[in-house]
Automatic annotation (TrEMBL):
The keyword Endoplasmic reticulum is annotated on this UniProt entry: no
Record keyword Disulfide bond present: no
UniProt keyword list: Acetylation, Membrane, Transmembrane, Transmembrane helix
Entry's Gene Ontology cellular component terms: extracellular space; membrane
Topological type in the membrane: Single-pass membrane protein
InterPro entries xref list: C3orf33-like (IPR042421), SNase_OB-fold_sf (IPR035437)
Compartments in which it is found: Membrane
This protein's name: CC033 protein
Length: 193
């Protein structure tokens, strides 16, 4: 029932047991999601605690994902302010929480944002901070994230998009020194006349 307003407020046991918490999104930056923790509510106790609990946002980062700038823009477009999310604690680094972030899509369906970012090619798989490399959970999550990244790679999405053959040829021609010299000569000729 306690409302956490800082990553340091969260007990170490919660992080070690990979507890899921609920929260409301307030803002999204390159550093992560600013999330207001919403504790389990018991009517009378919640009302009494609400009188003296401090305000503050948790910095939640997508564990195992290195976001591209387009990934931040996508998150800002997809997630609405005050939208409810679930975040599973995987690790804590200074004042940031490394988490799997789940968003409800309909009544019975939830989507893992970590995987969605990678499926759209808006980031790369990174080391999952906070989890031991030899743990079963680390390898299960890492495998899921790599599969999502592979889907984007196979479909040439996002950062994995390759130039078409004609775009590569056009680029090589325009970067050719002879062509650049001809362009300079043509512009000099136009100014002279």
């Amino acid at each position: 029932t306690t409302k956490f307003t800082s990553a340091l407020d969260i007990p170490v046991e919660f992080v070690q047991k990979n507890v899921k918490l609920r929260g409301k999104i307030h803002h999204i930056t390159e550093k992560g999601l600013g999330v207001e923790h919403i504790p389990i509510s018991i009517p009378l106790i919640t009302w009494i605690q609400g009188k003296w609990q401090s305000k503050g946002l948790l910095l939640v980062r997508l564990a195992g994902v290195e976001l591209a700038p387009s990934g931040v823009a996508w998150l800002q477009q997809e997630l609405k302010p005050k939208q409810m999310i679930w975040f599973q604690l995987l690790g804590r680094e200074d004042l940031a929480l490394e988490c799997l972030v789940l968003v409800n899509k309909g009544r019975f369906l939830s989507v893992c944002l970590n995987e969605e970012i990678l499926k759209h090619g808006l980031g790369k798989t990174a080391r999952i901070e906070g989890l031991q490399h030899d743990s079963r959970l680390y390898w299960e999550l890492h495998k899921r994230l790599l599969r999502a990244e592979l889907k984007a790679l196979k479909k040439n999405k996002g950062i994995w998009k390759e130039e078409s053959y004609s775009e590569r040829i056009r680029g090589r021609i325009s970067n050719n020194k002879f062509v650049q010299t001809l362009k300079q000569f043509a512009s000099w000729l136009r100014r002279s006349i």
